[in-house]
Write a structure and sequence with these properties.
The complex is a heterotrimer of chains A (about 120), B (about 80) and C (about 270). Chain A has about 120 residues and is mainly alpha-helical. Chain A has 4 helices and no strands. The longest helix of chain A is centred in the last third of the chain and has 32 residues, at about 75-105. In chain B, helix 1 runs antiparallel to helix 2 (about 25-45) and helix 2 runs antiparallel to helix 3 (about 50-75). The longest helix of chain B has 25 residues, at about 50-75. Classes of the chains: A mainly alpha (about 120), B mainly alpha (about 80), C mainly alpha (about 270). Chains in contact: A-B, A-C, B-C.
């Protein structure tokens, strides 16, 4: 339980992202919030694989086998691909936001929905 | 023990920059703040023994994402109304 | 409405905190900590193996010949997953090009801009353009190093492609790549498709065992077939079988795909 605050950081990042998703109206701000949630999830996976005083899962010039401790490789592989795909989906979301602005001249989701005064 | 202190400091910086990037009305400033958060996340990945992920995050999170966000802000508007 | 959103936030927070209380503590992941004990010279050895990660840690180096276990998971054990990711990236690039098509068409053909080496475009300081050009060479070299040494040191197709794509962004912001954007995009999309096709083709070559099986590792004397004994070593470039080839294909696909995204969005944002 020594490094429990890593999980707290993850939860707070996801929570801030959720707050922005619910209360913010700007489309680009919503994309930033989704990116922050994604950063929190990436950090969660890497923290799940962590071993204190370990080495990265690479045998090149690693310490001798007696005291060798390695972090788990599979979560790192998953997150590695997720980062690249996250960039692709971010670019797609931004493209849709740009096209929305070109067609409607606004980025406010409540104006896009036609709601005058929301409560 | 030392690594715990490093993790605490990096976590605090990450949370502060995340809140700033969600709080600012100026979208350009919030994107720059998101980039700082991404860079701190890179350092955190490196200290969590994940150099592969750190390289990918440094290239994509801190450089390319900011590029496309800036282009999107240029094509729309800078202030959040 | 306001009450509903507030209640849903409280619910999300409660779920998240209950969730992290049920996770295992940081620093004590599942699996056997003594996974490397009593490891002989056998190719596959499942003693001391409790979980899937233990299997990869104990047998990944000898089975695939790759020192970097993350690369061995990405390009060997879970290469089919990687094929799915590459396809997602390909589809994203295609949709972005398609969505921006009318917007770019409205701007008319690209005429201005000078991009020959040694002749710097106007409007941007000569220091910026020349410095960017020098940095471009260094970044591309580093990216190729990352791709080629993916099975020995931190790196691989995804990271090297991302690093090289940031070099493309550098070229764009220093206006060194402003002439003939349409032609550039055609060349880039050809190489992106070539990368994905290479990946699938290498997968089909090994179909005697299974799709994307590592048929070159451990024994093929000609191409990347050096057998690796278990344990730390200085790293041998000619090991790991099809893994460097798949890494090269993914590196091509990621670099040219991300570059197409950047060039398309830059072209749409450029005002004439």
């Amino acid at each position: 339980m020594t490094d429990f605050f890593l999980y707290v950081t993850v939860v707070l990042l996801i929570f801030f992202g959720m707050v922005a998703l619910i209360y913010k109206r700007n489309l680009i701000k919503i994309v930033i919030a989704l990116n922050i949630i994604e950063a929190g999830i990436n950090l969660l996976f890497i923290a799940l694989a962590y071993r204190p005083n370990g080495t990265a899962p690479i045998f090149t010039l690693a310490p001798a086998l007696g005291e060798l401790k390695m972090v788990l490789p599979t979560p790192q592989a998953l997150i590695l691909t997720n980062i690249v795909i996250g960039f692709g989906t971010t670019a797609l979301m931004l493209t849709l936001a740009i096209l929305t602005y070109q067609n409607n001249h606004t980025l406010d989701i409540r104006k896009l929905r036609g709601v005058e005064n929301n409560d | 023990m030392i690594s715990s202190v490093i993790f605490i400091l990096l976590s605090i910086v990450m949370l502060v920059t995340a809140v700033i990037s969600l709080y600012f009305r100026d979208l350009l400033a919030s994107v720059v703040s998101y980039s700082v958060m991404s860079l701190v996340l890179t350092v955190m990945f490196f200290h969590l023994d994940a150099p592969d992920v750190a390289i990918a995050e440094a290239g994509i999170g801190a450089a390319l994402t900011v590029c496309i966000f800036v282009i999107a802000i240029k094509l729309t508007r800078r202030r959040e109304e | 409405m306001r009450l509903a959103s507030f209640l849903s936030l409280v619910l999300i927070a409660a779920f998240l905190f209950v969730g992290i209380l049920r996770l295992h503590p940081v620093g004590e992941p599942l699996g056997n900590p003594d996974v490397f004990k009593d490891r002989g010279d056998a190719i596959t050895d499942i003693k001391n193996v409790d979980t899937m990660d233990d299997y990869y840690l104990r047998n990944g180096q000898t089975e695939t010949g790759s020192n970097n276990l993350v690369a061995s998971v990405v390009f060997d054990y879970r290469a089919f997953d990687t094929l799915g990711e590459a396809t997602v990236l390909f589809i994203v690039v295609s949709s972005i090009s398609m969505l921006f098509f009318t917007m770019i068409k409205r701007k008319g053909p690209e005429t201005s801009g000078v991009s020959r080496i040694g002749e710097f475009p106007g409007g941007v300081s000569r220091v910026i353009t020349f410095g960017s050009f020098l940095l471009y060479i260094l970044i591309i070299t580093f990216g190729i190093y990352l791709v080629v040494h993916g099975h020995l040191s931190p790196g691989g197709g995804f990271q090297g492609g991302a690093v090289m794509a940031s070099a493309t962004a550098l070229l764009l912001i220093s206006s060194l790549m402003t002439r003939n954007v349409q032609k550039t995009k055609k060349i880039f999309s050809f190489f992106e498709s070539l990368g994905l096709t290479l990946f699938i083709g290498i997968g089909f070559v090994g179909i005697g065992v299974s799709f994307l099986s590592n048929f070159l590792a451990n024994g093929n004397p000609l191409l990347f077939g050096k057998a690796i004994a278990f344990g730390p070593n200085p790293g041998y470039l000619v090991s790991a079988g099809t893994l460097p080839l798949l890494s090269l294909a993914i590196g091509m696909e990621v670099f040219f795909g991300l570059s197409i995204i950047l060039v398309t969005m830059y072209h749409a944002a450029k005002d004439e």
